[in-house]
Amino acid sequence: MTRTLRIGSRETISMQDSVKTRLVILGIGAVAQTVATAGCAPKYDDVKAFVQAHNHDVVDASHRAKPTDVVVIASATCPEVDSASARINSDGTIMLRLLGPVKVSMLTEQEIAAKIEKLLTRYYDDPKAEVRLITPTSRCIYVFGQVNLNGPKPFTGNDTLLTVLAHARPNLIAWGEMVRVIRPSADPNEVREITIDVTRMMNEGDLRNNLLLQEGDIVYVPPTPLGWVGLRVQELLYPTLPLLNAYAFPANANNTLQTYTDYDWNTGTGSSTGMHYGYGMGGAYGSQGW
């Protein structure tokens, strides 16, 4: 038996028929989505467009350091500064072990490396240092879709697909087999896109498709077919949820039970207990009192 909900002077169509119709449409859509994405495993010819050397430049060689930039140092001969990473302070200096504050603002990577090598000659013979500048506030990778942390991520130059996804934390309906990586371009003919099976990559340890991402890359994690249906149902039902709640719980009755024991209001000693139940527009609720 179906029931028709009357609102004012208008009648809605049968809820059961409407919901059934929508679910059938959503089921067809889920099947179509699955078929459309079947056989989309990346070919290694496609991957070639995304392959690049690791530890590539994050900024060009002519970039001059400024506050908020990060200086990353590598040195095979001086362990005190090897693997050091320091953000440039507002006064243009960085703090390094053994050397203390070093003024680096308005210097290029090569100039900073030369300055550090010169300062290290007090302690080492023929010291060597390499410097990389990172500007995390202005260069980003973007992650969207079924992850807990959507949005831009600072680009460091060492960001792999797995690293970025680990920080973004995919949710329960993330479709790990169909993760898309999009490499934008000002020329529409140069836009690149590839689909990666991240689940297989993790399960089998095959990291050939663990792409090193570039600045501006977009990572999109789609929902699973079942998750897609759930999201569509949620979208369809969202405008009607207040009406459905009112239809299911029309009454606004409250039942209260209070039991008092030996509580003394004058001295503030003793104890009392109480339990409150009710039914309102949102359904049943309960709260524990004293």
Order of helices and strands: EEHHEEEEHEEEHEEHEHHEEE
Widest sheet, order of strands: 9-8-12-10-11
Count of domains:
3
Class of the largest domain in CATH? Answer: Alpha Beta
Considering the chains and any ligands shown, give keywords for the structure.
290 residues; alpha+beta; Outer membrane lipoprotein wza fold like; wza like fold; 3 domains; five-stranded mixed beta sheet; 15 strands; extended; disordered C terminus
Describe this structure in words.
The chain has helices spanning 15-37, 44-48, 109-120, 161-168, 198-204, 225-237, 241-248; strands spanning 6-7, 10-11, 70-74, 85-87, 93-96, 100-103, 130-134, 140-145, 151-154, 179-183, 192-196, 218-221, 254-260, 272-280, 283-288. With 290 residues, the chain is of the alpha+beta class. It folds into three domains: 41-54 and 138-227, Outer membrane lipoprotein wza fold like (Roll); 70-134, wza like fold (2-Layer Sandwich), CATH 3.30.1950.10; 254-288, no CATH class. The radius of gyration is 31 Å and the shape is extended. 17% of the residues are buried.
